[in-house]
Amino acid sequence: xxxxxxxxxxxxxxxxxxxxxxxxxxxxxxxxxxxxxxxxxxxxxxxxxxxxxxxxxxxxxxxxxxxxxxxxxxxxxxxxxxxxxxxxxxxxxxxxxxxxxxxxxxxxxxxxxxxxxxxxxxxxxxxxxxxxxxxxxxxxxxxxxxxxxxxxxxxxxxxxxxxxxxxxxxxxxxxxxxxxxxxxxxxxxxxxxxxxxxxxxxxxxxxxxxxxxxxxxxxxxxxxxxxxxxxxxxxxxxx
Length: 239
Hints:
Elements: H1 20-38, E1 42-44, E2 46-51, E3 54-59, H2 66-74, E4 80-82, E5 86-89, E6 95-97, E7 103-105, H3 107-113, E8 120-122, E9 130-132, E10 145-155, E11 166-169, H4 172-182, H5 191-207, E12 209-215, H6 222-233
Parallel strand pairs: 3-10, 10-12
Antiparallel strand pairs: 1-5, 2-3, 2-4, 5-6, 6-10, 7-9, 8-9, 11-12
Helix pairs in contact: 4-5
């Protein structure tokens, strides 16, 4: 149960056998992103990492590889900003607010990344995903940072594994529609909230470059994807 201003969240009942780990996951990964919207702030369904050029965020449908790509950045020394919920602050420039240190990954992603089992924790009783955590200093960005880029992540279709990494400019309207699709909404019938959110996201699209990132459906391409993103952030042409 959530009060009408999003200041109090109460778990009224939990089915027998549901662990605190599962309840915690549902709270921080499902409920709180919607509460952010209820409290008058905006967040995107995106995973983000911090770079020297600013924060870059990856958004896209479930299963598109947002967390796996972010984990490859983190394991290469780039601090994590958030997994799945990117809270944003209004103003100029648009800034990101940190989430929590942890990434949720499927087993095949864990194996491909070579992540240590000592850094893995179960997410919930109903999923085989694991939460990748790392206590090393610098692996998590705990401060507000400038948002430099938003990438709409898209995998190449099956049968095109050899395709190269593509980063494409988006028309302003296409960029805005991508952000609208990725936004969290507590009450989709709240017209005042929808208007507020539309104007906010329009401002984000004006200030932050939003691009399409097309990646091969192949774990071995992760290093190439990282390099393409870093080149793009630095303003260098793709190879």
